[in-house]
Amino acid sequence: MGSIGMKNFKIRNLVLGEGEPKVCVSLIASNFKELFAEAMRVSKLDCDIIEWRADYFMYINDLEFMRKAAYFIRYAIEDKPLIFTFRTQEEGGGQAIDDDFYFYLNHYMIKTGLVDAIDLELSRLPEFNMNIIDFAKENSVKVVISHHNLQKTPSAEQLEEMLTDMKTLGATVGKIAVTPNDFDDVLEILKASNNMKNNHPEIPFMLNGMGEIGKLTRLTGELFGSVLTFASNGKQSSAPGQMSIEEVRSGLKLFNKEEEKRSDYFG
Ligand SMILES: O=C1C[C@@](O)(C(=O)O)C[C@@H](O)[C@@H]1O
After folding, report:
1. Known binder of ligand: residue 260?
2. Residue minimizing CA distance to atom 3 of ligand 1
């Protein structure tokens, strides 16, 4: 014990790390018309955070367009925290990007002052690009360091090591989504989460399993330590196995510790 409050952190006006995991949905659009419509639509959903999956957007090479797109999203979603994510193809993303432009784009988005957090993939962070993390922090932008495996689930030790590395590199929050192929893999994910929660209460993280088999892990964050969970935006999932916001909210409620306390009143 003694871990209460240690992994709390704030993105915009939202505190993560206490109570139920916060619910994030992805904004996916390929052109401006879709972007306008989707930004307005997701702004009305019952989610806590919006992730712009810019890897689906066709104008990524035009930075001025990117700034305008971010400006519109910022305006549409009002005070909800916004994560800028370019998911690379290697980790399940919508289009290819070279290393230099990946960092240039993230750097640029930090500079716009329009996004609250950026997502950087662990595998893309060789030492020479580490200054992007300092740059984000200097500009009050939170850093999500992420890892995705669309084939399998690494061992609990490997998952824990990755989350620890993410923190060492300067992540505000470490985020891992892997693919369980059976329920032993699900147990591996929960074991890694539980170990992180108990042994590293100072490291805020999200750890979930994708696909049908992984669904449970998207709901049990409050028990096992994940501070964030992704739900489908109602039109398009940004990863396999995402459930609707309603399903996620009722699942989170089912495992809510406050519910336990409430049942104490009845003996
Ligand atoms: O990292 C994640 C988690 C995710 O892969 C999921 O499993 O829901 C969805 C992605 O959009 C996001 O960037």
Report:
1. no
2. 177
Per-residue pLDDT tens digits for 65-110: 999 999 999 999 999 999 999 999 999 999 999 999 999 999 999 9
Which residues, including other chains, have CB under 8 Å from residue 258's CB and lie 6 or more apart?
Answer: 19
pTM: 0.94
Which protein residues touch ligand 1 with a CB less than 6 Å away? Answer: 26, 51, 53, 85, 87, 119, 146, 148, 175, 177, 208, 210, 230, 238-239, 242
Does 262 belong to an annotated binding site? no
CATH number, domain 9-256, options 3.20.20.70, 2.20.25.90, 3.30.70.1450, 1.10.510.10: 3.20.20.70
Asked if residue 196 lies in contact with residue 176, where contact means CB atoms within 8 angstroms, the answer is no
Write the pLDDT tens digit of every residue in 222-248: 999 999 999 999 999 999 999 999 999
The residues facing 121 across adjacent strands are: 146
Q: What is the dihedral of CA 245, 207, 142, 237, to 10 degrees?
A: -40
Ligand 1 atom closest to Cα of residue 242: 8
Query: Which residue minimizes the CA distance to atom 4 of ligand 1?
Result: 239
Q: Confirm whether the ipTM is greater than 0.95.
A: yes
Residues annotated catalytic, as ranges = 148, 175
